[in-house]
Amino acid sequence: MAEMLRRLVSNESLRTLQEKLDCWLKEYNANTCDQNLNFCLELIEQVAKVQGQLFGILTTAAQEGGHNDGVETIKSRLLPWLEASFTAASMGKPVDSRIPSLQDTFDRERDKDSGPRDRDIEQLDSDLNSTRNQLNKVQDELKSLQAQEQARHRGSDGRGSEQRGSSKRSSEQRNADANYEKQLRNLKDEIAVLSGEKSTLRGRSTGSRSPSPDSRSHSRSRSRSGSPSTGMKVRTPSPNRSKLSSVARKAALLSRFSDAYSQARLDAQCLLRRCIDKAETVQRIIYIATVEAFHVAKMAFRHFKIRVRKSLTPSYGGSNDFENAVLDYIICHLDTYDVQSSVNDVIRAMNINPKISFPPEVDFCLLSDFIREICCIAFAMQTLEPPLDIAFGADGEVFNDYKYRRSYDSDFTAPLVLYHVWPALMENDCVIMKGEAVTRRGAFISRSRSPSPIRCALPRF
């Protein structure tokens, strides 16, 4: 800054300006209008140069003062002068020092408002102090109550441990009795079923050929296998399972489907996140696994129902209750469903799905337990009247608030679905449980996804 001031003094600009002013005053009356204007403009240009140098020195001096030094000086002197200068220049009047500036007006308003503001601050301080006193009293009361509660709990711990031990022993005894009763009922049911089969075979033995030992052994071995056939013995549905109403089975399946969303899905995500960092890819894989599991389970149910029809045709040929008998048989023999085969089909379908790309070392067998649970749920849902199914979902479709809810990280103003997290459960055209989807702007733009070259080589059967 000192160097700039030294240059300004050495240039003697102000002294030269004074000399030009004296010269112009002597020659003003003898000059023409153009000559006087040129003199005036030259002086204005020289004053502007000097003013520019002074403003540069002002800027440098303010910077040397730091962030806060010089602020009051600029506000009290520079700003009022600029205000008066611009106002006078715009109105064509000379600068009048008597005109109040913005700084003067601001100071008067600040002095005027300082009294009520100080009173408000004092009132707030008093309120704050009283509130703090009340809070301290409440905290003291809370500490005393906690001490009393802890003393009471220490006295009741001994009695509580004895009660828990006795209740545990009684609950174990009740569970054992319930297991014995359940086994007894199952045995009685089996005896009733075998008695019914025996009476049926006796009634049909007249005029019929007795089966050979080979056929009987073949029938027994096939009845122990997981799928029915035409050569197996037809077993009457168990009374306990037959009495189980469709409403109760539906409620149980809805509960299992909800648990699969809230717990099994999260467990599967944790397994995949060990190998895949991107959350979107993990959620896509689980959604595709759920959709494929429902598709494979429905196909398995159709094949299973066809085999049951063939096996029950000799016993119920021409009967009006044939379809009910087929459905009752499937309900009673859900445990014979070959779920492992369906799990393998689902994994095979996922390996060639083009929507999910991931490192080749990741194996979808990590999701075997999750896929097995979804397959069992989907297979059992086909035995309901009407059956339950999941809604069709496609990337880039218009978001349907009736079927889905948006995930927490969605753009709630986006109209299109980027991808689905969980399918919606449907009964005909009615939504039983909402699914979950992620919506973002630009979801309709298709993104190129190349499947893994290792998994594309696996065929889908």
Protein architecture, described:
The chain is mainly alpha-helical and 461 residues long. The chain folds into 2 domains: 102 residues, no CATH class; 229 residues, no CATH class. Helices cover 66% and strands 5% of the residues. It has 13 helices and 6 strands. A 3-stranded antiparallel beta sheet has the order 1-4-5, with no helix packed on it. Strand 4 and strand 5 form a beta hairpin. It is elongated, with a radius of gyration of 46 Å. The C terminus is likely disordered.
Give short descriptive properties of this protein.
single chain; 2 domains; coiled coil; elongated; three-stranded mixed sheet; lipid binding; three-stranded antiparallel sheet; disordered C terminus; 13 helices; 5% strand; mainly alpha; 461 residues
Quick take:
Residues 202-214 have a biased composition (Low complexity). Keywords: Coiled coil, Cytoplasm, Lipid-binding, Membrane, Mitochondrion, Mitochondrion outer membrane. The protein is 66% helix and 5% strand.
N-end to C-end Cα span: 86 Å
Cα gyration radius (Å) = 46 Å
Number of separate helices: 13
What ranges have pLDDT less than 50 throughout 5 or more consecutive residues?
206-243, 448-461
User: How many DSSP E strands?
Assistant: 6
Q: Percent helix among the residues?
A: 55-70%
Q: Biggest sheet, strands in spatial order?
A: 1-4-5
